[in-house]
Structure formats: structure tokens, C-alpha cells
Amino acid sequence: MKRRIFLVAASSFAMAVSFGAMAADPIKVGFPMILSGPGALFGEPALKGAQMYVEEVNAKGGVLGRKIQLISRDTKGNADEAVRVVRELILREDVNFIVGTLTSAEGPAVSPIAKENKIVFVAPITKTDQLTAPANLHPYVFRSASTTTIEGRTAAEIVAKWPVTRIATISPDYAYGQDVTKAFVEHLKKIKPSVEIVDQQWPKLGEADYTPFINAQLAKRPEAVFSSLWGGHFVTFAKQAKPLNYFQAINNNFIGAGEAASIESTKSMGADYPVGIWGNSYDVFDWPDGPQSHKDYIARLKKFTNEEHPSSWPITGYIAMQFLTAAIAKAGSIDSDKVSAAMKDISVDTPLGKMTMRAKDHQANHGQFWGKTKRDPKYPFAVIENVTRIDPAPFMD
Amino acid sequence: MINRIPWVLVIFLVALWVPWYGSRFYTFLATDIAILALFALSLNLLLGYTGLVSFGHAAYFGIGAYTSAILMKTHGMPFAVSFPAAGLMAAAFALVFGYFCVRLTKIYFAMLTLAFAQIVWAICFKWNDVTGGEQGMPNVPYPDMSWMAAIPGLGGLRLGDQFYLLVLVLVALAVAALRRIVSSPFGRMLTVIRENPERAEFIGINVRRYQLAAFAVAGFFAGLAGALFGIFNRGVFPDFAYWTKSAEVLIMTILGGMGHFWGPAVGAMVLTLLNQQITSYTEYWPLILGSILVILLFGFPGGIVGALVAAGRRLTRRGNA
Fold it and tell me: How many domains does chain A have?
């Protein structure tokens, strides 16, 4: 008899211990991201942002009493490698959620894997409209990133206010360049019917010599130019355009999507940067009119990354993790279907202000920073003045 | 004694049981390895048997993948049509590209294969309406495998496991065909050409025509591997035809040993497992993977299988003495 009581006590104790252990198990989040090659310049800081958020949440006790564990993997910038690591994360590491991918190929490639395995997937950077287009939408894919539609239309809202009518575009000839340029042109024509598109240049992605495109464009005498040359492509283009007096000819009425005004672009060009043009960025470390939460975030980020002028990319990973954590808290569970339901119409106070994940297309109203670049004696690179953030909510459809 | 065991059959039978080990991860790995093994074996028909170094073998893998994906996804064709079509399309392209390539020798041949592969990549990358451009074609459907339910024991399996069995059987058939080809008079001729093309020419062999035939056959099997990989990967992307993919399959072939029929298959397995393990443990994987490859390639100049065969021979000789 005594022995039986002992057994019952022992086994219930063991059960309690194992339940306790279960409750303390971390929530695993797989984070596929480009961590090698040229794309790592953007992928590494995005991961840093997510890591910083996880550290902050865990310091406060985690979510649902459980810590979050981030498991990162290198996608090498390949869609098929992204698919492979995501499957490995799901099948071997037993992750509960996936947050990550960078290029417009990686995001849509991973989405069907999330659907098949019923794992909620939040895309922090991928901008292509395809990801959440009606044909590809499913209960488990969400995007905290901006989109090509938001990016192109926001640029159109800005250009519509300029006293110009003869508009030209220059964009790399592939999906992203085409989509964002189309969104810009269509929206601009709609809100300002007097504009005329006088020229459209389509250099191939990775073009080394932009001179013929620049000359052809100048010959059409545009008053303003929209570009979606991003990252190193913009740097190459701008270095070749400056000596041809391209930016002077259009009076600096140049607006660069694809993060042309991000600290990454301005830093890498230094004194060569065509100061005075407009561009966008995911984040700015100096946002005088911004909310206190943004200033606090930048202060924490400086400490976390040990950078005097932190990158503009960590905010992407940070916000994606905020959305996921908020949805887990709201669902009170890590069950994919419950979290998916909780994610719909959820609002999150991000360092950039309040953002909402729309229920109908699983898309956050994530606009970017836009502004005219200027030289500031405080910094050895160009910065954005009069930082503008336009809430894209009114023109996302 | 060791020689009497039909190793290939044993490995095939063991591989058949993978879905029943219970881990979806093992099935996933095994599918990956089986498909890439076929890809590497197809390259070895050129590299090891004909002595042609192709830097652009991924082109035919990519063409096969896109052909099957476009037929299945865009046109709703059954897998039974799209699978052979992928092989035939890849072979047709290999025939056209090969026609020009075999006119060159050595490094010039290699560079031209690379150039054609980059053209294929550029077409996949740019032709948005058909190939989906940079974003590729996600969501390639699984073939209809409901007929498997009629086979006792297979009905309850997951889709991924059923697909694995399908892949395994198809790869086994393709490899058997490849094996038959290399041991046929045609295959022997290729070896003659590899050893001494001038001499082969003198005894009346049309060297270019044989090389072209080998090129097309290798393209055919690469196309089949591509078709399977597109479905397995749940999408096809321009990266499939990129030069890095060609380099990867070249490394697999050399690592496993191009002097032995099964070498490339072993190379595919080792490289896939290494990549899998190392990328999950460290973000500095390029350094470690590179170091391991350098050591393996220096340590086993005949590849892994070459080294094993040599070691096996030494053992049996000692045993006999």
C-alpha cells in the first residue's frame, strides 16, 4: 500500500516535472536569412534586429511564460536553398514559426512550404505583391514588410506634389523593378492626370555601364525621374550619372526607391553621393520629429550592435518579431491556426508607430521613410532631411 | 565474400524503408540525395566516361525543371507526360548546344558549355510571362499519387513519403538505364574517345558524333533529375540553371570519384549531408565546407569511391597473401 502511494506520488511528481519542463520549453522561431555573399549586407542587420527584440522579450519573461528561441539559417540568397533550410528548420528543429527570407524569390518560394506544414510564416523584407496576391494567399503567410505597390504609390504621392509634368523612369529589368515602376506610373497618372511619361529606361539587373541609358534619358529632357535601382546598382548608376551632370539636368528631381537614401547607400558613396535627390529607407537613425519610442529603439540598437550610426535594416526583423509575438500573446497559444487567426487585424506599437496587419490580405501598412538628402557636417555621409513617413493605408488597394 | 553481396540491391531495399523510420526529416534528406545522385551520375557520363568537362550541366537540370513545372502547373498536364517531356526537352537543348560545344576541345569546350548555361539562366530570369522571371514558379503541384493507395501499405503514407518512393523508383530505373548505356558498346566507345580521341578518329570513329550523343544523353538524365527536383523543391527558380549549380554537381562528381560508376552518387550524398550538417551548426559554413572539400580532394585524388576501392584491394591482397 505504502509502496503504491509512493509510486503514485513519484509518478505524479515526474509528470509535474515534465509538464513544468514543457511549459519552460522555448518557443522556437526559425529565421532563414541571407547571411553570406553580397546580400548579407542587408540580411545580417535584419537578423540583429530580430535578435535584439527576442532578447528584450525574454528579459521580460518571454511570451506565455515561455522564452523565444531564434534559430537562424543562411539562405545564401537562393530560393531553393531557402526552401531547403526552411524544411530542415521545420522537420528537424521542430520550429513553431518561420520569420525571414529576403529576396522576392525566397519569400514566395517558402510560402507553399509554410502552407503544407501549417506553420505561420511572417515575411519581414520581401516586397513582391505576388507573396500575398489572392492566388497565393493562405492562412499561414503574413507580411510585415512593405510592398512594391506601397513603395511605388508612396513615391507617386510625393512626386505629384512637385511642379513637374515630364516624368521618366529608370529601373532594373526584372520583377521588382517592373512591379514598383508600374505601381508608381499608374498611381501618378491617377492622382495627377497632367503628367506625361516621356521616357522609360530598363537596364538589365547588374548592368555595369549605365552611360547609354543616362544619355538616352537626358535626350528626352525629363523634369523628374523615378528610379528603383537598389543597393549596389544605385551606387554604380549614381557614380556614372554624376559626371554627366544627370542630376543637375533634372534639378535633383530624382526619387530613388529601393532604399536609395538608406545609410548603406550614402555611406558606401561618401562624398560621391548626389546630395539633394530624394530617396527612401527602412529606418533613419536621426528622426527629430519621430516618437520617443523610436529614439529609445535607436539608443538600444546602438548599444546592441555597437555602431555609432546603426544600419537601417534591423527594424525589418524587429517589427516582424513584434507582430509574431503579439499574435502569440493574443492567441494565448502557439497553435498555428490560433496564431493565424490572432494575426488578423492585429495592431502593434512599433518603433515607427502603430502598424496593423490587415485581415483581408495579411499585409501590414508598413510605409518607408522618404526624404531629400542633404549633407550634415555632423556626419561623413549624406542624410535625409525633413524625414517623411506617409501612412500607406489609404492607397494600399 | 564482400564482392558477392549485391550491394546496389541492398542499398535500394534499405532506401525503400526510409519512410517507415518515422522521421519526415530522413525522407526529405533521402529524396534530396536520390535526385541529386541522378544529376551527378548524368554529368559523369561526360566527365568520367567521355572525358568532357562541362561547366554548364545545370542548364539541362534547369530546362528539365522548368519544362515539367510549366507543363504541370500552367497547363495542368499529368506527371506521366511532363516527366519524360522534361528529359526530352533537355536532350533537345543539349543536342543544339552540344552541336557547337563538341567542335571545341578542353577548356574552350568547358567555357562554351558555361556560356550556354548562362544563356539558359538569363532566359529563365527574364522571361516573366513563361518562367516567372526572378521569382521563379513556386507551388509546383505534386503528381497525382492516389493510385499508390491501391498498393497495400502505401495508402496511409504522407504525400512527401509517397513522392519519395516514386522518386526512388524512377531514379533507380534511370540509373539502371545509365548503367546499361555505359557498359554497352556505345559506352565503351566513349571510353576509347576519352583515352585517346586522335586514335579513335584514326580507327574510323566519328568522335564528334559520339561526343554529341553522350552530351544529349547526359542532358536527358539531367533533365529528368531537374523535373523531380522542381516538384520536390515545391517550385523552380532561375538558380537551378546558374553556374553555381553546375559547380556544385561538378564538385559532387569529383568528390565521389569520377573513375567509378557509383562515385558521383556517393559524392552527392556526402556533399548534401555535409552541407546540411554544417549550415545548421555555424554561419561560417563556407570556411568549414571549403576546408573539408580541400582535404577530401587532396586526400582522395580518386574521390571517395576511388579511395575505398583502393583500400578494399589492398585488404584483399593482404588476405590472399
Answer: 2
State pLDDT tens for residues A208-235: 899 999 999 999 999 999 999 988 889 8
Q: Nearest C-alpha of chain B: how many angstroms from A174? A: 6
| Interval A99-129: pLDDT, tens | 999 988 889 899 999 999 999 999 999 988 8
Q: Are A235 and A381 members of one domain?
A: yes
Partner residue opposite B286 with nearest CB, options A36, A109, A178: A36
Query: Could you state, in order of their start, the residue ranges of all structural domains in chain B?
Result: 2-242
Kindly state whether A136 is in contact with chain B, defined as any CB-CB distance less than 8 angstroms: yes
CB contact under 8 A, B285 and A178: no
Q: What is the mean pLDDT of residues A231-242?
A: 90
Distance between CA A277 and CA A280 in Å, rounded? 10
Return the H-helix or E-strand segment holding A226. Answer: strand A224-227
Show residues of chain A in contact with B280, CB under 8 Å.
73, 88, 92-93
One domain for residues A141 and A154: no
Q: Are residues A175 and A68 in the same domain?
A: no
What's this model's pTM, rounded to 2 decimal places?
A: 0.83
Select from A116, A36, A127, A39 the least CA-distant residue to A83.
A116
Which of the four pLDDT bands, split at 50, 70 and 90, describes residue B292?
confident
CA A239 to chain CA mean position, Å = 26
Which pLDDT does position A19 carry in this prediction?
46
Q: What is the pLDDT of residues B124-177, one digit of tens each?
A: 988 888 888 888 888 888 998 888 878 877 777 888 888 999 999 999 999 999
Q: Do A78 and B239 touch (CB under 8 A)?
A: yes
Average pLDDT, chain B: 89
**Residues B32, A173: C-beta atoms closer than 8 Å:** no
Q: What is the pLDDT of residue B205?
A: 87
Distance of residue B183 Cα from the nearest chain A Cα, in angstroms: 35
CA-based nearest residue in chain B for residue A34: B283
pLDDT for position B312: 84
DSSP 8-state secondary structure symbol assigned to residue B153: T
The nearest alpha carbon in chain A to B242 belongs to A78
Q: How many CA atoms lie within 13 A of A134 on its CB side?
A: 2
Interface test with chain B among A44, A91, A147, A181, by most B beta carbons within 10 Å: A91
CA–CA distance, B135 with A103 (Å, rounded to integer): 9
Q: Range of A321's domain?
A: 11-147+295-356
Residues A81, A119, single domain; the answer is: yes
Report the percentage of chain A scoring pLDDT > 90: 65
Question: In this structure, are A278 and A384 located in the same domain?
Answer: yes
Q: Could you tell me if A252 and A273 lie in one domain?
A: yes
- Number of A/B CB contacts below 8 angstroms equals 85
Q: Cα B244 from chain centroid?
A: 14
Summarised one tens digit per residue, pLDDT across range B31-70 is 999 999 999 999 999 999 998 999 999 999 999 999 999 9
| Nearest residue in B to A77, CA atom | B239
Are A179 and A132 found together in one domain?
no
CATH number, domain of A130, equals 3.40.50.2300
Cell of residue A115, nine digits: 502552407
Residue B237 and residue A176: Cβ atoms within 8 Å? no
Residue B290 is placed in which grid cell? 571549403
CB B69 within 8 A of CB B137: yes
What sign does the CA torsion over B38, B41, B46, B47 have? positive
pLDDT score recorded for residue A3: 53
